[in-house]
Structures are given as structure tokens and as C-alpha cells.
Amino acid sequence: MLDKDPDGSVGENIHRQIRNDIIFGRLLPGQKLRLEPMRQAYGISVATLREILSRLTAVGLVTAEGQKGFSVAPASECDLMEVSELRIMLEAKALKDSFAHGDLNWEANVVAAHYKLESVEAKVFAQKDDIPPDLREDWKRYDWQFHRALIQACPSKNLLDLHAIVFGKFLRYQLQTKTIRGEIAADEHRQLLAAAKARDTEAAIAILKQHIYGSAAHLAPAGTPSAED
């Protein structure tokens, strides 16, 4: 989802670029996506651009407004809560299945993904809330890769695909705030790693709920459910 793919087709690469521009906040919630300026900016035809925006509409990152064209999907606290619940539902199921099927290679990939995430987290925390955009993007890319590694042994491609869509929506909210949860989130990542090594599904799901609800509360304190709900 957030990984760079220099070997893909032009259309797929531009699709990935526009999607990431929405997720990382370079295209803002509610912003009009005017075809001619976008065609020039991304170097593609209007027909290809329309196809890409239609695909992004199908996954909820863009809204189509009939004759008015396309806009970046709006953001709201209600939507954040719904996305949080969906992420927990999908990721918890994928974690359970991944723990059941994961082999030594899977575990090694989880450890490696966490090592990369922990390394960039140290750089982020050193910056406190004044994080350069490139570092913030690297951080969230490694965050995605770690969570993806945890569930990668799940045998359901449909489940993994749905999770990627919902994770992207959740990440969009995370990148709308300049503040960070810092060491709390990093400690939850360490706990998830330990649970993965022990194949402790119950502990992993409990930590995951705490991790997602905690992040949602940081983004929108009012009306956020607790991890015990």
C-alpha cells in the first residue's frame, strides 16, 4: 500500500502516488481535484486520471460529485471512529490467522520490520513534534510495514486487501496532527512483537485494541471508545 514500486506501470505508479498524496496530506480533506491541473502535475492523460480517481472513490479516499467532479474525501470524528473499529475487526482476525500459520521466515520478517520501525522511531522522538515531512513519511511507512508483517501469514488475500484499504484511511487521520503519542506507541509495538514471537493471540489483540483506540483518542479525544469497550 505505502511501499514504493519503481517497477510498476505508469498508471499504477501514478495511482499509488495520488493515493499516498491523499494519505500523507499533500491533498487535503475536501480539496477539489480539478482534472486539468492534476493532469499536468502528474503527467498523465485525463482519461487515465479519471480512471484513477474512480478507483480511489471505490475505496473511500475520493468522493465523486456528479457533474461537479472529484474531491478528496472529507474527514470527521465519526468517520475516524468507524475506521478505527473496522481496523480492529480486520486486523484482529488477520493477526489470529497469521499467528496460526506463521513460520520461522514470517517471524524473521516481523522482527526485521520492527527493527526498522524502532530505528526510525528513535529519530522521530528526538525531533519531538517538529518532525520533517520526509522523516514523518518514512516513520509511517515503516509503521505500515510492521503491522503488515504481523498479519502477512494470514492466508486470506481478500482480508489483507481490505485491511490495507482501512489502514490507509486510519493513517490519513494520523498524519493530520503534528503531535505524536511517542514512547507509548513504541512500547505497544514492542509488546506486539513479543506477542507475535510467543504466538499469543489473546495478548496481541488486547494490545492492538489499546494501540488503535489510544491513537484515535490522541487524534479525537471526545467520544473515543475505551480499549475495554
UniProtKB/TrEMBL annotation:
Molecular function GO terms recorded: DNA binding; DNA-binding transcription factor activity
Every HTH gntR-type domain range: 8-75
Matching PROSITE patterns: HTH_GNTR
This protein's UniProt keywords: DNA-binding, Transcription, Transcription regulation
Signal peptide segment: none
Keyword hit for Transport: no
Superkingdom, taxonomy of origin: Bacteria
InterPro entries given in the database record: GntR_C, TF_FadR/GntR_C, Tscrpt_reg_HTH_GntR, WH-like_DNA-bd_sf, WH_DNA-bd_sf
SMART domains attached to this UniProt entry: FCD (SM00895), HTH_GNTR (SM00345)
Xref: PANTHER family: HTH-TYPE TRANSCRIPTIONAL REPRESSOR GLAR, TRANSCRIPTIONAL REGULATOR, GNTR FAMILY
Protein name per UniProt: Transcriptional regulator, GntR family
